[in-house]
Design a protein that fits this description.
Strand content: 15-25%
Largest sheet: 6 strands, mixed
CATH architecture of the largest domain: 3-Layer(aba) Sandwich
Structural class: alpha/beta
Number of strands: 9
Shape: globular
Distance between the termini: 37 Å
Number of helices: 7
Number of domains: 2
Radius of gyration: 18 Å
Helix content: 25-40%
CATH superfamily of the largest domain: P-loop containing nucleotide triphosphate hydrolases
Strand order of the largest sheet: 5-6-7-3-8-9
Bound molecules: adenosine-5'-triphosphate
Length: 258
């Protein structure tokens, strides 16, 4: 596939572009134009976060990346079939135990039983749910359910992870803790990330790049490189440099909205 020059990897992974959108536009059959002129790349080793006002087309962008929707114009290339998804809702099956939920994707991919059980156990331990394998989803907190959702995707060892506001419904402390755990997984598992959030500080904290979108029809108004090294020190959030970048992104968001 044709790619733009990848930026240097921050996690030591091989360089290369996993997602490449060129001049992507989306018009739904009812006439709603959700996206226009979107140029976006996600390279190996990158964690790219998109922020933008409600209804600007962020979820549509992710659905195009996942193959659930087809762009009405432009080129949307994804150079891997190992894609992980985490949505705002953990979407666990209520009648299945946590370990059986975490095994589900591997099961759908016809992974042999013993292998998928081992993968699920490894993923459960990675997200800090050891000891809860036999519990049902309703016996877990919202944050724990989200960890299970993450674990379910990790069993397939995704190269590209798509996140649609996964922590939006959680309280601040849980959200911060999960941000730290996600960063740890990003460094350890070396997937590339495309993340959507309404929180500018979450975007800056998690990402190597932040993309700001305008109101609908969504187009990219500004891109920011986040210079803080990985693994990221949680205290970075209390530094003037961090506050300054959050301020710049917030400003671009307000400008793009008006
Ligand atoms: N299947 C569809 N048919 C018609 N219009 C749609 C469809 N899906 C989304 N839209 C419209 O496209 C626009 C973008 O929707 P999308 O869900 O991508 O926005 P978003 O930025 O993710 O919003 P939010 O931040 O509120 O979740 C909205 O105006 C929405 O109503």
């Amino acid at each position: 596939m044709t790619t733009t020059a990848p930026s240097p990897s921050v996690t030591g992974t091989a360089p290369g572009t996993l997602l490449d959108f060129r001049n992507v536009a989306m018009q739904f059959p009812n006439g709603t134009i959700a996206l226009r002129n979107v140029d976006l790349t996600v390279n190996r080793g990158e964690f790219v976060t998109v922020v933008g006002p409600s209804g600007c087309g962020k979820s549509t962008l992710l659905r195009i990346a996942s193959g659930l929707e087809k762009a009405s114009e432009g080129v949307a290339e994804v150079d891997t079939d190992r894609i992980g998804y985490v949505f705002q809702d953990a979407t666990l099956l209520p009648w299945r135990s946590i370990s059986k939920n975490v095994e589900l994707l591997a099961e759908l991919h016809h992974m042999p039983k013993a292998q998928r059980a081992a993968k699920a156990q490894e993923a459960i331990e990675l997200v800090g749910l050891k000891g809860f394998e036999k519990n049902l989803p309703k016996q877990l907190s919202g944050g724990m359910r989200m960890r299970a959702s993450l674990a379910r995707s990790l069993t397939l060892e995704p190269e590209l992870f798509l996140f649609d506001e996964p922590f939006g419904a959680l309280d601040e402390i849980t959200r911060e803790r999960l941000n730290d755990e996600l960063l740890r997984l990003f460094v350890e598992k070396q997937f590339a990330g495309l993340f959507i959030t309404h929180s500018v500080s979450e975007a800056v904290y998690l990402s190597t790049k932040v993309i700001v979108m305008s109101g609908r029809p969504g187009s990219i108004v500004e891109r920011f490189d986040v210079p803080f090294p990985m693994p990221r020190d949680p205290d970075i959030r209390f530094t003037p440099e961090f506050a300054e970048l959050v301020g710049e992104v917030s400003h671009a968001l307000r400008e793009g909205h008006s």
